[in-house]
Amino acid sequence: MASLVGEIERLVKSDVALEVKGRLLEFESFKNKRGDEWFSELCFCILTANSRADTAIQIQKELGTKGFCSACAADVKKCIRKNKHRFHNNKTKFIVGAREHLGVKKIVQEIVEREGEKAAREWLVKNVKGIGFKEASHFMRNVGYKNLAILDRHILNLMLENGLIKKKPVSLNKKKYLEIEEKFRALAKKLKMQPAELDLYMWFMKTGKVLK
What are 134-191's pLDDT values in tens digits? Predict the structure, then answer.
């Protein structure tokens, strides 16, 4: 783990830190954005499940907020397929189905205020098809909440390589997710940063990019 800590501390002193800070400010700004923009971000996170973030970003740009909120299923599917994004049938079904929760901003903000970020994540997992703990954590981070871990394959691989976990889980049920999340949070605490910030540095280490 010492080498991982050292590498992250090096990045904090590099130009990468400016990109990370800029991205965190972008996430923070979501608290003042409209509800339909929050819904668009929810759809983006649905797209990222077991798929590439860069093509999900392109689909979000092409469909736009209006497309996610109201485009017909055929048009949503056409855009996903055009960008060679995986699981176009399921992703289309989940995005159209998620329109039942167009008011996701108000719901999440109220739950966070009453019960905290973890409770809001639980609500997302239970109520939005196509959203698991990783995707729900991703959404929460992208709309400005900073205390949850996004345990995608890049983060898990880095944790495995540095001895933070003994083996990479085949699947992440709730119990396993929360267990690994605590290890991630402990690393963030050691580095004196929030999980959202640590995620961006670790993702950069694996991809060379600071994406959302």
Answer: 999 999 999 999 999 999 999 999 999 999 999 998 889 999 999 999 999 999 999 9
Note whether 19 and 95 are same-domain residues. Answer: no
- Cα three-residue angle 162-167-169, rounded to 5 degrees: 125
Is the pTM higher than 0.85? yes
Residue range 114-127, pLDDT digits in tens: 999 999 999 999 99
Strand, coil or helix: 146: coil
Question: Residue 80: which residues within 8 A CB-CB, separation 6 or more?
Answer: 47, 59, 88, 91, 92
- Let me know: does 59 contact 80? Beta carbons within 8 Å: yes
Active site residue 66: no
Please tell me whether residues 111 and 172 are part of one structural domain: no
The catalytic residue among 152, 166, 176, 206 is 152
Q: Which residues contact 212 (CB under 8 A, 6 or more apart)?
A: 23, 26, 27, 44, 53, 57, 142
Choosing from 77, 118, 134, 146, the catalytic residue is 134
Q: Are residues 110 and 195 in the same domain?
A: no
134 a catalytic residue: yes
CATH number of the domain residue 153 falls in: 1.10.1670.10
Q: Which residues span the domain enclosing 203?
A: 2-28+149-207
* Dist. CA 187–CA 151, nearest whole Å: 14
